[in-house]
Amino acid sequence: MLIPHATLVLVIDGSRMQLLRNRGTDASPDLEVVEEDRLDNPATHVLGTEAPGRAHESSGGAHHSYAAPDLHQRREDRFAQGAVESLCRKAAGGVPVVVIAPPIMLGTLRAAYGDRLRDQILLEVDKDLTRRKAGEITMFLHDFAP
């Protein structure tokens, strides 16, 4: 796949993020790391308990409880939101963007995209490559055929 010069590549999952830029040519990409971030996100039971709310029926004696919040997922969602905000700042000049994330994270990211960023996205890949180095991601994109 051809990746235009200066394209930003966001590689993210729930706890790791890499933002890369193509400093090579369209046909011969060379991705360099622009920004990296990690989230230390333990399981919800380790983060603490936030007791679910309770509802009481106005007539009769029925009681209902709301679902307990998933604190782990909330932190992942905030992490994704922060990554999109960083991407928007760096892609402000209309730079093309490629997003690589697991399917569920892609859904979270899509909800955070603004119209401007959505128009800049060349490709979304539903794969987890966050544990890969920039060179491996370059080879993956070079060989990728949408």
Brief digest:
The protein has five helices and seven strands, in the order βββαββαβααβα. The protein is α/β, with parallel strands linked by helices and 146 residues long.
Descriptive notes:
This protein is α/β, with parallel strands linked by helices and 146 residues long. The protein has a single domain (8-38, 72-143), classed as eRF1 domain 2 (Nucleotidyltransferase, domain 5, 2-Layer Sandwich), CATH 3.30.420.60. Helix content is 34%, strand content 25%. It is built from five helices and seven strands. The protein has a five-stranded mixed β-sheet with strand order 3-2-1-6-7, sandwiched between helices. The longest helix is centred in the middle third of the chain and has 20 residues, at 71-90. It is elongated and about 70 Å long. The mean pLDDT is 85.
Question: Helices and strands in order, then pairings?
Answer:
Blueprint: E1 8-12, E2 16-22, E3 31-38, H1 44-47, E4 54-56, E5 63-65, H2 71-90, E6 97-101, H3 103-112, H4 115-120, E7 121-126, H5 134-143
Parallel strand pairs: 1-6, 6-7
Antiparallel strand pairs: 1-2, 2-3, 4-5
Number of domains: 1
Shape type = elongated
Q: Name the beta content range.
A: 25-35%
In the CATH hierarchy, the architecture is: 2-Layer Sandwich
Biggest β-sheet, characterized? 5 strands, mixed
| Total E-strand runs | 7
Q: Point out poorly predicted stretches.
A: none
The secondary-structure class comes to: alpha/beta
Give the proportion of residues in helices. 25-40%
Output the helix-strand order.
EEEHEEHEHHEH
CATH class: Alpha Beta
For the CA atoms, what is the radius of gyration?
19 Å
Overall pLDDT score = 85
Count of DSSP H/I helices: 5
**Whole-Å distance between the termini?**
8 Å
**Sequence of strands across the biggest β-sheet:** 3-2-1-6-7
* The CATH homology group name: eRF1 domain 2
Q: Which topology does CATH recognise?
A: Nucleotidyltransferase, domain 5
